[in-house]
Amino acid sequence: MSPRPQSESVVFEGKASVIAREIRQAILSGEYPEGTSLRQRDLAAHFGVSPTPVREALSRLQAEGYVETRLHQGSVVRGLQDRMSENWQLRMVLEGLATELATARIDAAGLKAIRDRAEAFAVAAPRDWEQSNRDFHFEIYRHAESPVLLRFLSELFQTLDVAPTSKREHGVSVREHDDIIDAIARGDGAAARKAIESHVGGTAPQR
């Protein structure tokens, strides 16, 4: 990232939040590749701030899995494969939980909305598959009625912009979506959870 003066967004949004966002974007874009050392003093000079908000920003990024602390190196950018493997493990757990909760709380209108999303994915053009698939998933998760869980899942999905492309055929995803819906419609939370965990696990990156 090229040096820049401290902007108004840094002042009003919160220094640590802005710094974390910009470093995160630099990591996702490849500007900071795996193994890059993120030195607090250099970053503080770059953003025109004291080391304190930089330290807080790096702590947030470590909690999100983007950086790790290494002996004698400080904060270092983690590898994509490590981040993605961890992402999928968390997704399987959280999406399973959200689906089970949604099954217990959803009404007829909600079930129809999920079916509509599934049908939209089934007929979508290839260029729209990714967004349509996300729409289907989050139509389920919002019926879990858990804002915190929904926020965690949204943050996990943000990292999929750099994920390896799924090799699963579109028709397979369509059938798996139908299996998930069938379990939800039956009110079988355990089966719905198992179905979506299998669905998510089927696209996990391989080491």
UniProtKB/TrEMBL annotation:
GO molecular function ontology, one term from the record: DNA binding
Ranges where the HTH gntR-type domain occurs: 13-80
Residue intervals passing through the bilayer: none
InterPro entries assigned: GntR_C, TF_FadR/GntR_C, Tscrpt_reg_HTH_GntR, WH-like_DNA-bd_sf, WH_DNA-bd_sf
Keywords: DNA-binding, Transcription, Transcription regulation
Domain of life: Bacteria
SUPFAM superfamilies (alphabetical): GntR ligand-binding domain-like, Winged helix' DNA-binding domain
Alphabetized PROSITE patterns for the sequence: HTH_GNTR (PS50949)
Record's protein name: HTH gntR-type domain-containing protein
UniProt source species: Mycolicibacterium conceptionense
